[in-house]
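It is worth pausing here to work through a concrete case rather than discussing structure prediction in the abstract. The textbook approach is simple: state the sequence, then state the predicted structure, then interpret. We follow exactly that order.
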Amino acid sequence: MKRFFENLSIHRKLSLLNIVIITVLLLALTFVIFFYQRATILSDNEQRMQNYLQDLENLFELQVFEKQVQVNLSLNMAKEIVSNYGKLIQVDSISVPFSATDQTSGNTEEIILSGWLLGETPLHNDFQLVDKIQQVTQQTSTIFQRIDKGFLRISTNVLKLDGERAVGTYIPNSSPVVKTVLKGETFRGRAFVVDSWYLTAYDPIIINGKVAGALYVGVTEKNIDYLESEFLEKRYFETGFAYAFSGNGEIYIHPSHKDKSIADTDFFKQIDEKEEGTFNGSVFQDGGENIEHYYKYLAAIDTYVAIAVPREELVDDQIQTQLLITLIGALITILIVSISINKVAKHIIITPLVTLQTVLNKLAHREKTEALSTTSDDEIGKINTSLKEVITGLDKASGFAKEVGKGIYDSDFEPLSNEDILGHSLLDMRNNLAQASEEDKKRNWANEGYAKFLDILRKEHEDLSQMSQSVITAMIDYIDANQGAVYVKEEIEEGNKTVLKLVAAYAWDRAKFLDDEFIIDENYATNLTGQTFLEKKTTLLHEVPNDYIKIASGLGAANPSNLILVPLIFNDEIFGVMEIASFGKFEEYKIEFIERVAESLASSISSMGISEKTNRLLIDAQQQSEELRAQEEEMRQNFEELSATQEAQERYKKEMEQREAELLKEIQELKQHGNHET
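Step two, the predicted structure:
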């Protein structure tokens, strides 16, 4: 081998030497690039998993928020129902024995309570009122009476584990619920009810100026079936999945290990000290030793959300692919450079080669450098030209990457060629980041808007017209539209027809709807609004007829170019139509936003209808009660008149019997007198 090398020409020796040097340098650069890309992959995957966990957390927070809003509305309805039953009074002369059980410790003692009357109805162990509240609000309800050790359930439809009503259990004084209510304030939020956690509202019951008890409405904290369906639909990478478990280690959502406990596992012992993090290994001793578990603790509801992904899907496969690409690129580069150096070596000796080596060393270490100052057109000149292009390309790529890092996504950049992997990768990175940024803006816009409209619906829930007007005004402003209207249905008793009534409008001036309402049949409609109502589907027009609607101002009027009609649907029941006109196009994310707000508006209209129907039923019941009392009074008077008549007949009968006896006596005396005379 040595003899062979010694016999080679200097040109060959230099070529081989340069090939070795370039190979070493490029391999070093390859590994630097590889480790840099590996770190980037790990960082990107970490951020990606954190975003996934945040998505799961948002799912929980949204459900808790919606349930708490329902509880608050239900409390108002419950208070209205209680007030319709009459005044609540405490009767100390009535004693009610009770077995009081602490819901936390289970300790039981016998106590005596003063009687409570709501109108004329005793409340102890009477479930008519709480069942009525549950029927109207679809939530559990309880009447509490104050005792020395807390608040005692005297009437409830909250059930214990054995299926019995939890009457006789009490909330101890140490509970934040009792402390809040005793201040005369309403407790709202998470509370432990009998044997599980609920989202609740406790309102003080005031008798004779003092807190004597509490009115409760609530619903179980989590809708496990809904959450489980959402979790199990999600997939991460290829086989990764999401699961959830409580703060004590009980798993309640998992594809295969639901209802199991991990309280004694190394995994749980590790995460018990942290609010979020990762764990690599098996949780259930089922062979998943190379599984990455990302978890996050939700303190507000004492639960963990977690995602499990095989490490090979998360990291290994991506790193191996990137390593392969880098090595192939390095080999191609080595081949090109070797051929170029071989050509240059035909006419150049050591000094120019050393100079080129110096330049390449700096370039390999990403140092600031410049190409040779030669103006020759030989091989060295050509290599120098190529170096200039590489340096210029790297400078442009570096500047472009900095611009992208600052969030400037419209910078101009062109790859050096169709085979420029770095250039195309930078363009792909720029496009992906720009798309993600735009999607984030749309998502944030929709979430902020939805929160704004939920606040409007919460504040304006008592007046349909005011609520609808506030919604359509805010909607026109938020989506940059120009006109809008809200139609709400009213049923007609005769026939299968419905009236759509205009209850709110913004800059609305359509001649054919001057009467503010129109009738639609269940089988056909005469206009787009009615057709949208019947089909229960969103209608979108990009070319609005000239005679349909105009947008007017002090300077003139023009036809809008786009029109959207969205049905107000909640629980498959339609309550009306929201109509919006605009010069601008309705983008898909805005359409989804309008439909989402329309559903919330329909939900509020439904709740108002239920409340109004409940009030009407209570008024009818009161009228029927008054009619029954009037009938009872009339029957009592008739009975008294009949009794008086019977008493007069008795007196007359006795008088006639007495008169008859006197006449018989006189006749007897006359007979006896006649016999004496004879």
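Step three, interpretation. Residues 499 and 519 are 4 Å apart (CA to CA). The longest helix spans residues 588-677.
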